[in-house]
Structure formats: structure tokens, C-alpha cells
Amino acid sequence: MAVESGLDKTLDDLPQHALARLALSIPDRLRDSSREPGLRQVACFHCGEPCPEPILAKGEKQFCCHGCLAVHDLLAEHGLEQFYDLSVNPGVRVVKRDRREEWAYLDDVKVQRQLLDFSDGKVSRVRLRIPAVHCVACVWLLENLFRLADGIGRCEVDFARREVAICYEAEKISLSQLVSLLASIGYEPELTLGELEARPKHAAGKRQWLQIGIAGFAFGNIMLFSLPVYLGLDSLSGPFFTPLFGYLSLLLAAPVLVYSAADYWRTALLCLRQRMLRLDVPIALGLAALYAQSTYEIIGGHGAGYLDSLAGLVFFLLCGRVFQQRTHDRLIFDRDYKSFFPLSVTRQTSAGPQVIALPALQVGDRVVLRNRELIPADARLVTGPALIDYSFVTGESEPVPRQAGDYVYAGGQQIGAAVAIETVKAVSQSYLTSLWNQEAFQKKSAHDLDTLTNRYSRRFTLIVVAIALGAALCWTLAGEPARAIKAFASVLIVACPCALALAAPFALGTAQRLLAPLLIFLKNPFVLERLAQIDTIVFDKTGTLTAAQDSRVSFVPGASRLELSTREMIWVCSLAGQSVHPKALQTQEHLLVNLNECSPSSSSSSKHGMPGLIAPDAIEAFREIPGGGISGRVQGHSILLGSGAWLEECGIAFEEANQPSGSASYLAIDGHFRGAFSFSNPPRPEIDHLLGNLSEDYELILLSGDKERGRDSYRKLFGPKAELHFSQTPFDKLRFIRALQEAGKMVMMVGDGLNDAGALKQSHVGVAVVERVGLFSPASDIILPASQLPRLTNLLALARKAVRVVQSSFAISAFYNLAGVSIAAAGILSPLICAILMPLSSITVVLFACGLTTWATRTVGLSKR
Amino acid sequence: MSVLFILILVSLGLALSFLAGFIWAVKSGQFEDTCTPSMRILTEETTQATKTSKSFKQNELKPS
Predict the structure, then answer these.
(1) What is the DSSP string of A336-386?
(2) Is A611's pLDDT higher than 60?
(3) Pair (A601, A630) in one structural domain
(4) Between residues A643 and A424, the one the model is more confident about
(5) CA distance B45 to chain A (A)
């Protein structure tokens, strides 16, 4: 039964996160191909996009649409024209129509309590993430937001995080009005369910800076006091100044020991309690020995103490810790499904549609879904038919048609006309979201603690303590107990693993920094250590190996063997432009490319600035049947485009003989079958190269949520030994990875969607592939854009080399340790030797680690040049 | 010789005051965002903007 579609005919109604997922709208992508000489391209004064005919002009400025003109007028009215001086065409095009009631749910007290940073009844502060911020002008405009509305106070932009913190007076302007204002100028905040979670307050950063500051201050000043002592105070001043410097050093070193080194004490105690010998244990031992020996020497008047080494040691260690904690502010590696689901949902009540916050959704509520909107919870379809796109959630590349009464899963996106669903389960209890209740997400990953450094430190600590005790014993037996104590303390002091602790952070941290400009982002440097041990790689198919918008379309003519004429192409293209079904969009794009090749010069005016397209109003009787196809009359000709079964239902006869296998859209013009558009979803370019290289050293496996289609082509890609599994649910993938791990394999998972979330978390290393950096990706250890996927081989090679660099750095530090310990065990360690040895070893190791890693990056083929 | 003693204490006092300044800067959040302040330098208040609209200071609403 055909249903009249109340389609919103353009992309205007896309929720922001869906817009971002679509990457670029079709006309944008084709604009580049139409930039040929002969076509007049005028850039919009506000946003820089090309202006279609007829050009909207105001004075000397031209605009591409009324939205841009409206924003320009608003800014001019409030004296904010400087915006346009700060960057070239800095504006953001406002695509959505402003719907006032869309933001009403933000005024709910419960929502505000979780969303706002701070509120005291009079002044409120909210932090909003605005992905559209991209330049200096954006920063300036948002910080001058107070000029656009009364009640807005101080606004502060954090550009790296794309966040803005706004203080406002709740009495004068409500949160919904504020967000509405931001949306109207093109800076719509990204409001997902994840925004309601408490956000970390970055307090750890302050503490680290304070610790380093105090350690550095003490280091410098104690060194200043130690120099006279080393260089020799004469007998006149010696007796007075040496104790003075000694006591001052003790005073300065106290906060270093207590505050700056606090984290090392805490972890060392924890480790001892759990009988683990992590590197913090010998560090704590060394610090204790340093301070104790120094106190004894200074108070007893025997010497000047080792406090400069103490402060220097803590300072270098903290520098190493800062170096390894380079975070990529724009990326979040720990996202769960909540960051993918929208914050608001349209509930159908007896009083009409009401926009509410997602947590307020009850089981049994009716929800209205427009085009590209997400199903918030498992539900039953009330008004059908619907077309659901599950590609991000189960990996099925084709949207599935569903009828009224069918069960639909949370996370799927509706394509086409608005439908109503009735929720059956709570949001967190739905099939997909229950994936996050799995054990893999509950416990903190055990992989993090098993690093090279910790494994080495076990042996190291035991040997050092043994040597210290041994030396003390020998000297006691030799009859010099005083020297025995000094030897014991000295061994612990000199063996304090400063260089050892710096090797891994600097080597791996350098590698992480060098990868960032290549758009390969690591969660932390220690991911590289796990990468070096990988022996099995599991790939997802939809969205990872293939790209959703990369469909190859070709027209296969029917019995008449005639290709489509230019006029016919224009009809079909105009008709296809009325639908938002992915196949219609791909057909339209394919035809537009063909049309541009045939006729580069522009003739009549058109909606998108493309030659000769027919305006939407000239198309009569347009109908879209989900799961069937589209039909309409264009310039007097009736056109049908859709599935074979539907065409037959409409009475078009055609023979199956020459028809393409696989996915296809059949075309009939004026009642005659003309041919079919065949769609194929090929793997991304260079994947064959990548898989060929990887199959030599690694075991490869394909786990796809899609139906088994094209198995042979993937068999060819992966090689004869690889396992290929199709129709895998998200839970199947998780279980498969776990089984591999129990069999002793080190597994790396490469995936992109929520359906891979469990597998990514469970595997030893999870790689999330995104279309563009900044878009949503499930929790993973590495994030990279799809264009960098072929670099996986280089990345794995770099990981192996980096581990070897760390191990050689350990060897260098061991050499210094050997020299130092021999001197210390003999009981002749002096503060001067210690003060020279420790910085020398640290600097050597750091330079070696950084330099060799940089060189390794280049030899592996991952340098920016 | 006693002057050295005073000098040492004075220099220590000076260094401590710098440390106090550093601690104040960290506590007031100046090290949290090191990227955006570099962009703010590039934006200058044009005379037109200051004349036609309210000034920034007037509208400063900080949570107390």
C-alpha cells in the first residue's frame, strides 16, 4: 500500500550529529568538480561557499542564502563587523531552520542540574561543546556574545577543546534561548546524552604544575647553595656557611620530598602492599635514602648532603611524567554510547509533540522520528513503513525496511518520512546499549600496568637491594660499620632509577608526538608497547574497510542496450534529488558527475547552481515508498526508480537475464524498462596493499556485521589463510576476541562503529577509524582517519622499533648504574659525584631515546616530509 | 662576611616571591588553556566596536 510521504525534502532537518556524520552534502562535494573556467563562482561574504544564481546581494557583499544574510545583519546591528576582518569568510552556514520549541527541554530543572557547571540562582555557568569553532574569528565572536543578548556575561572559549564556558543571568535569558541564539548564528552546541555525565574538572593538571614548579625552584636554589661547597669554601667562611647552606637546603628540600614526590610515595606503598615491584618502589627507596643520609650528614656536621641530587631527581622525574601525558584535547578516547545518542527526543503526547531530554523517556512513550534521527531505545514501530539504517550499530550496509508492528533497535537511524515508534525498553537496557554492561567495560584494563618499565624494574629492584645489603655486610665484616651504613645508603641513592624512569616516557612520548601531525592519535604512549606484541589483527567491514559514501554506481541498460540520454539523465537526477534515501543520493551524484562531463557550461538557473536541473516544483506527483522506490512526473514523463519487486508491482515488465547481481535500483521511463543502476561498495583504496603487507606477518580475520555478500572478493583481499565471518552481532564480536585472547593471541581490533565497541574494548589494542577527525568514535586506544588506514603497517613497524629503543635506553642507564654502584659500594660516593652522575645519565638517556625514536620514525616511513 | 649572610637571605626571599607568583598563576587557572590566549592576542578592539556597544568590563559576570 503506497503511503503519501510528508517528506522534508532537503537536508534542512538533519540533527547536528547526523549532519556531521554525513560529512559533506552532495552539492558541496560536486562544487569542487564544477569549478571550471566558464562557470561564475562567487563566494558568499559570510561563509565562503559558492553562491547559486540568483545571487543575493546587499550593497557590495554577496551571500549564498538568507541564513548567511540574516547572521550578517545580526552582527552588523550589534557592531560586531570586526568578525569579518579577523578571518577570510569566517562564518558558518546555518543549515537548520530555527525551531523554537526544539530547545525547550533545556529549561527543565533536572536537565540543568546535570548540564550546568554552576548555578546560584542568579548567575549560571554552562560549558558547551561547539564543533563549528574553527578559527580566530569564531573565538572572538563567541567571547563577544554578550553584545548579542541581554543577560549574557563572560564567555570564555577553549579552542583546543572546542568548548565555550558562558556565564549568564538565568532571569534575563534562559538556557534554551541562549542555545537557540548560538544555533542561529551557526554555532550550534553538540548536545548528546553524554553531556549529562559529570565532566572531569582538570584539577590534576594544576597539581602537576605546582609539583614541578616547587621541585624546579628547590632544585635551582639548592644547586646555588651547593656550588660554593663543591668549589671549596675556605677555612674562614667554611665553618659558618657550610651548615647554613646545609640547613637551608634541608628546608628547601622538605616540600619537594613531601609535596612534589607525593605521588611516588603513594604508589610505592600501594605496590608494596600488593607485592608488586613497580618502578616507584626503588624511586621511593632512593628518595628516602637521600634525605636520611643528607639529614644525618648535615646535622652531624659531616658534610653537605645530597639534597641537590634529590631535588634534581624529583624534577626530572616529573618532567618525564609531563612529557608522557600529552593529551589530544579535541579527541576523547573513552566515549560510550551516550556520546552518540542525542540529548533530546520528540515525544508524542495527547497535547502534541513535545521535545524532552532523553533520560525523561519512559517505557511505553511514543516518539516521533524524522529523517536521520536516532532510535533512542528498543521500540515497536507504530506508523510504518520505515527504513532503518543500522550501519553504525550492527554493520549492515543496506538500510532495512520495516513495517508497522516490527521491532526496531536503539541506535538505528530512520531514513525518509517521519515515523512514530513506541518504546519497549529503557534506553540503557536496549539490545545495543546492554553491550556496555559487559564485563569488558566494567573493570579497568589490566593491560595498562604491564609495561616494559615495570617488568624491568622488578629485576632491577631486587638486584639493587641485594647489592646494597651485600656491600653493608662486607664492610661490617671488614670492621668498618660506619662505612657499611654509608655504602648501603649510597647504593640506594645512586641506583635511584632516574634514567630508567625517563627512558620509556621520552622514547614513546616522542613517537606519540611525531604521529600526531600524521593524524594518528594514541591514547597514551604505552599503547606502542602493546602494539609491538600484536600477532593477530581483526577487521570490521562496514565503515572500516569500506566507506559508506564510496559506492560505485554504474548504469546497466536493459534490453534496448541504450545508455541514458542527457535529457533522461536530467529527469532521473531531478527526481532522485527529492529523496534522501542513500541510493537516491548516490544515483543523483553519479548522474551529476556524468552531466558535468557532458555539458560544462551553465545554461538555466537551478537550485544548486548545477546546469539544467529542474526545480523541485516542476516535478508532479512525487511519491516515495520505503522499501519500494520513488516515482513522479518530470516534464510530462513518468519515471519510476526502485527495487525490482516494486517495479513489477507497478506493472513494468522486464527480464532478469542481463540484470546486475547484488544491490541495484531499476529504472522505468514512461512505462518502459530502461535499465538498472548497479551499486557496489568496494573497499577503500590501498586496502588490498595494506592487507597484502599485513598478511605476511600477522594473522588476519574479518568480522563483519553485514550479510554475507562478496565473500569471494574479500577472500582474495585477505588471502587463503584468513578467517572471514559475516552477520556478527556486537556480542559475537566481543566473544570472538575474548576466545582469541584465551587462546594466547595478542589481538588488535580495527573498527569504526558502535557495533565494534565491545570488541575494541576487549582487544589488547583497539583502533577506531573515523571519516574525519573530531567525529564520534567508540572507546579505543588509537584513533585515525580512514585516509591513514594504509599506514597501519608502518605504525606496527614503528611500535616494534620504539620498544627496541626503550630496551637500548635501559642498557645505557644500566651502564651508568654499574659505574655508580661500584663507586657507592666502595663507600666513597660523594655528593659531587652523585650530582654529576645523575643529570648526566638522565640527559644521555633522554637524548638517546628521543633521537633514536625520531630516526626510527623516519626509517619506517612515517615522517611528515 | 655578615653581608653575605644578609644577601643570601634576601636572594632567597626574592626567589620565594617568584615562587609565590607562580603558585598564584597556577591556582588562578592560567595554565589550563595554553592555546586560546595565543589566539586572543590577534584580535584587537577596533574603535568602532568600543564606541557602539557596551564594554566588556561592564558585562563581566563572574560567579562569586
Answers:
(1) -GGGTSBSEEEEEETTEEEEEEGGG--TT-EEEE-TTPBP-S-EEEEE--E
(2) no
(3) yes
(4) A424
(5) 8
